[in-house]
User: Fold Putative subtilisin-like protease-like from Solanum chacoense.
Amino acid sequence: MDESKESKSPRDTEGHGTHTASTAAGSVVANASFYQYAKGEARGMAVKARIAAYKICWKTGCFDSDILAAMDQAVADGVHVISLSVGADGYSPEYDVDSIAIGAFGASEHGVVVSCSAGNSGPGASTAVNVAPWILTVAASTIDREFPADVILGDGRIFGGVSLYTGDPLGNAKLQLVYSADCGSQLCYPGKLDPKKVAGKIVLCDRGGNARVEKGSAVKLAGGVGMILANLADSGEELVADSHLLPATMVGQKAGDKIREYVTSDTSPTATIVFRGTVIGNSPAAPRVAAFSSRGPNHLTPEILKPDVIAPGVNILAGWTGATGPTDLAIDLRRVEFNIISGTSMSCPHVSGLAALLRRAHSKWTPAAIKSALMTTAYNLDNSGKIFTDLATGEESTPFVHGSGHVDPNRALDPGLVYDIETSDYVNFLCTIGYDGDDIAVFVRDSSRVNCTERSLATPGDLNYPSFSVDFTSDSNGVVKYKRVVKNVGGDSNAVYEVKVNAPSAVEVSVSPAKLVFSEENNSLSYEISFTSKRSEDIMVKGIQSAFGSIEWCDGIHSVTSPIAVRWRYQSAVSM
Assistant:
């Protein structure tokens, strides 16, 4: 280890840890901003919580041994919440070889909530990581704050973009516009652009392949004076603001396609970029789900819906280290106290802080109860009253993308009912998915505690989870049944809840009983939910198809909502 470049202590030399920690539990700071962007009062979610920081990552990566050691030490130190904005690269590994899943199991057993980022590998399906059912898995969404930076073309057309550029503007004069694909590097890799074609011009670069701020740096080093960063299909209309080192803006795929067409068809294309600071309002609607946010279905255990919730993770202002610039590029000599960045790393600590507040308000609740409260009180409508938009597609988001919905702190304080899960239930779950006593010893650290012949569930979906994920296959015969137990934690010990069913298309959903009558002597009641497919195998020739719905338990005060995600995975007939 080069101690001149990094420390053995948790001292932050990169910025990520400072940003996430201050989001979860940072103190109140007046007039915080990033070069006047997002100016206002900054505060963490749980401002009076204390932060214990543990080093798990180095410049060469994050190692399993460090992750497990840090989680064990955190539990030994008496923390109440562990916030982990890290995860596997790509698909989630099997639970018994996943250091985070193993460490989180032990933490949960000791009453510690573990909140983790879902990953930034979207919009591909089944890309969510940290999907163990004892982990609170957090995806990323937008907020109602934008940093507009418009592209004005030579023909007068204007396209909206976003930027956190902090230097001198380009001015009103339009400059020559070129496309990076015609200048040596379509993705604007450093050292690949031809200075003879770029110098003094604005360069249109395609998103992908390398860091967004690195593209701007490549343009600047080649002599370019500005950059328009245009999304391709996989990023859709997602806009992420960056603190570029030259005048630059990001535009969505639709605008990018039109600008590309203009550059390649006009004999003398020109453009300029106008930066408009910070704008707060209802246009565009928020929250929306980030295209980069990793998604389900859960490829390890399809019966467990992941991610669990969404929270703010796009263009988030929080604290920053003084050891590096806001872009983390070597040529960026700026030093700031606050930075604005994006990722599920940013959404995770929002929920971690909320979990700390719930733990304070309800000290006897288990980690599963806290997780249930956050999930069953989440909402699914943006500030225009419509279902969240998935920025990857421009269409309505689904529970495979946003889980139970966007966390709602005030409602989570009083959820009415919770779906509780004990450590023994998780052991039963592991037995059900095929683990034996030796495998499970990795989690419980004592193989003598486990005898799977006596403790498996009927199906992994019988784990008392606050959401429902159903796979119809040839083996299911078109019917899937799950059991659930809910605990009354509301103020009325004699509450009566009735169920409302919003059935997915082509699925019949029945709940028995349809009414739950609680009493002082019986504050936990069970129900069975049955899903019956109304589609026949012979019409399922296009592979996997999905449908979504929900159930809601209501007592006139509380609404306890659980999403339903259904997939049909009948195998098509094969010609012989």
Observations:
- Residues 544 and 569 are 5 Å apart (CA to CA).
- The chain is about 20% helix and 25% strand.
- Residues 16-142+286-412 form a domain with the Rossmann fold fold (CATH 3.40.50.200).
- The longest strand covers residues 479-488.
